[in-house]
């Protein structure tokens, strides 16, 4: 089955049904593998220095294992039927994408804000962010939601599609393993600073190109949606590098510029206040409708990118690649 058809089909599957709770999800098993390998490493690495050296095995084993098992499954199914292998790839790639889940999460917060139920909106936001939400007002709830949706355009949509284009379901699943590693062990705290450094760096490297492509896509989408695409691009060039992450600042600054709002500022994590550099200009107060516009930007960017991926695949195969 042509890769272009697989990519388009996988995106449609995610867009329509997302991740049904009654079906097993590969990320669950990746998480279990991470926990098991972490426990094994900590058992044999007695010192912090040893833990830091051995910590490089965590992404190699988990991401490599995800790639190998997925490749083996696809290969075995291909021996039975190329169509069966193609269907498996469609489903596997769709599990690495989360366009529907990301939109639904944002709209859940928006729905509560529209009803004026601030406590419920705080709880809905708390389901998708790590910051404390108990005392946030409406504009801050909007900011948290917009930042989360914008940031995850990269690792929930563009990056998995990018790696699926390069290496099909096995490489897309390896990327999802890397991203899951970062979310589980990529913290700069006492517990994971030594063990998780390699996982965090690998995630930064994996998202480097997709994050910058996302900024370009969002600028294009801002023009298509008749937002201020010039300010969108200016804000990316000015503010993206201010974000503590080498990648997250690109989609966040693009959205801030397109909407004419300012993201960043003070966040509270487990009672500790942390300041994140501002991105964008506060031309107006943030409002619930900004969540809808951000979701539209996300959906347009993802749809355009999957079409680009399909076109590149067709062109590559047409040239005999």
Structure write-up:
With 321 residues, the chain is mainly alpha-helical. The chain has one domain (3-318). It has twelve helices and two strands, in the order H-H-H-H-H-H-H-H-H-H-H-E-E-H. Strands 1-2 form a two-stranded antiparallel sheet. Helix 6 packs antiparallel against helix 12 (289-318) and helix 9 (197-224) packs across helix 12 (289-318). The radius of gyration is 20 Å and the shape is globular. The two termini are 15 Å apart. The mean pLDDT is 94.
Question: How would you briefly describe this protein structure?
Answer:
The chain has 321 residues and is mostly helical. The protein has helices at residues 3-17, 26-44, 48-54, 57-80, 82-96, 99-115, 118-126, 138-185, 197-224, 229-239, 249-259, 289-318; strands spanning 263-269, 272-279. It is built from twelve helices and two strands, in the order H-H-H-H-H-H-H-H-H-H-H-E-E-H.
